[in-house]
Design brief:
Layout lengths: L6 E6 L6 E7 L5 E5 L2 H9 L3 H4 E2 L2 E7 L4 E5 L4 E4 L7 E5 L4 E6 L8 E4 L12 E5 L15 H17 L26 H9 L1
Parallel strand pairs: 3-11
Antiparallel strand pairs: 1-2, 2-6, 3-5, 4-5, 5-10, 7-8, 8-9, 9-10
Helix pairs in contact: 1-4
InterPro entries: DUF6151, Mss4-like_sf
Pfam family, one: DUF6151
Length: about 200
């Protein structure tokens, strides 16, 4: 099945002003996971998108390679925020406050996780193969955590994607300019709104 899966998948924000595609998605270069971490959940809640982004108390993400992503419209609406001082850049569409994806603060190692809720045809994506941060949920809401075998595969896939970005390919990143600077300044957070998001 993994060898047969290959194609381009479209994504967009809720209002449609920001749209793009991920090219040549396969189960080898992209992995779909269900994340229960409090930060991914707070990101969606902070932007008022919890109902759309949450699926059974977790946020589904597809981790892939930045150079596979291209924007077709609305790139000028991209903004980012950081929920913690050392956390990732969390990108959203400012036109309608749609949470889009997460990247690291720098281009290397190459990393992007796109919220699955933004894809037009979710069935065209690889299946969920990993459940992360199950312990962030109350005990009675936890999904059974992925086993050690799934975790090892997840880590190996990430390392493989990093190697694929060497020596120069990692520079092809739509969220950073040619000097490696994020294309948007990080938007300051409203403290009360942030606190409410973590309690959602």
């Amino acid at each position: 099945m993994e060898a047969q899966m290959s194609g381009t998948v479209q994504f967009s924000c809720k209002c449609g002003k920001v749209s793009g595609r991920v090219a040549d998605v396969t189960a080898k270069n992209s992995v779909r996971l269900a994340c229960s971490c409090k930060h991914c959940r707070a990101f969606a809640a902070y932007l008022g998108d919890a109902e759309r982004s949450f699926q059974n108390d977790y946020v589904q993400l597809m981790q892939t390679q930045p150079w596979m992503i291209s924007f077709e419209s609305g790139k000028e609406y991209l903004r980012n925020l950081r929920l913690t001082a050392k956390g990732p850049l969390r990108w959203y569409a400012s036109c309608c406050d749609t949470p889009l994806c997460n990247t690291l603060p720098r281009r290397f190692p190459p990393f992007v996780s796109i919220l699955v809720a933004n894809f037009a045809r979710q069935d065209d994506l690889p299946p969920v193969t990993f459940h992360a941060f199950c312990d962030h949920l109350p005990e009675d809401q936890r999904v059974a955590p992925s086993g050690s075998s799934a975790f090892r595969k997840f880590v190996l896939q990430f390392l493989w994607r990093v190697v694929q970005g060497l020596p120069f390919r990692f520079r092809q990143n739509p969220f950073f300019d040619e000097k490696g600077v994020a294309i948007s300044d990080t938007v300051p957070l409203d403290p009360l709104r942030k606190s409410a998001a973590y309690q959602a």
